[in-house]
Amino acid sequence: MNKAELIQSVAAAAELKGKEAEALMGAFIDSVSDALKGGDKVALTGFGTFSVGERKARTGRNPQTGAEIKIPASKAPRFSAGKAFKDALK
Fold first, then answer.
1. Residue 63 — pLDDT band, cuts 50, 70, 90?
2. What predicted TM-score, i.e. pTM, was given to this entire model?
3. 32 and 48 share a domain?
4. How far apart are the first and last CA of the chain?
5. Residue 61 and residue 69 in contact, taking contact as beta carbons nearer than 8 Å
6. Structural domain count of the chain
7. Residue 60: strand pairing partners
8. pLDDT tens digits, one per residue of 12-49
């Protein structure tokens, strides 16, 4: 399912117009992104938790030349599924 299909599904389930569902999804994505940028976690009980994980700086290798390269520290979004969500997939 891609974003457009998800928007159509949400619109049908919530009995919204397509544009309303698209605005809703956009607002949700923006709100989660803003919270994560601010260092907060977003916990949706029964669904899961969005958080930011820290990656330490490390040394890697260029696969073509074998030369060592330094990979800087970075932050990455993470999602941890909640119990109810995991159980629904069984």
1. very high
2. 0.79
3. no
4. 19
5. yes
6. 2
7. 69
8. 999 999 999 999 999 999 999 999 999 999 999 999 99
